[in-house]
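Quick one: co-fold with hypoxanthine.
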Amino acid sequence: MTIAVIGGTGLTTLEGLVQVRREVVRTPYGEPSGPLVHGRLDDHALVFLPRHGRGHTIAPHRINYRANLWALRELGVEEVIAVAAVGGIGPEMAPARLAFPTQLIDYTWGRQQTFFENDLDPVTHVDFTDPYDPGLRARLLQAARQLFPDDVVDGGTYGATQGPRLETAAEIRRMARDGCDLVGMTGMPEAGLARELGLRYATCAVVANRAAGVSAEPI
Ligand code: HPA
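Sure, here it is.
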């Protein structure tokens, strides 16, 4: 089974990854964020793709999410660990914590959010009740707890905003009322597209800051 890591802000290279080769993958949906890196981390083969490009040049609303996920599946990837920097809304979502959300709400707009562009077919409406794969999420949570026992949050709802600007304090208050615990700009359509392709997908959210208006500190 091949695992992929999609790196977010702050994770454009994977420490300890022994690079085996880089592969340029073309897809019917255009170019992924960059060449995909095949490598080994400890004893595991994995594929690494920095979501924002190697030089962190691609803004969240400009990422070709469809090409990224299509390319991963093309390489035989079955599980995707999506690392994402987020803002913390809920009180336990303090900076430097790792959270493994169970739910999401999509506030993005104008992004290519499906592979089913044309005629309806029976699989168009994928089940997205649980947007993150429970088995993969549980394994990530367990591993993170071993490494950082005091800094791991089990669960939470991720709100995906359009960006690239940060949110207003009122937007964050509304998201809190909606039940969001975390806010980020890249969680959708990535998770939905992964589900459409049948990839098991879970997010490791790295809390980078308190969301707008949550603390007196400037972001
Ligand atoms: N809002 C949206 N995306 C983010 C934030 C935030 O506060 N922090 C890191 N990614």
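If it helps, Residues 20 and 39 are 5 Å apart (CA to CA).
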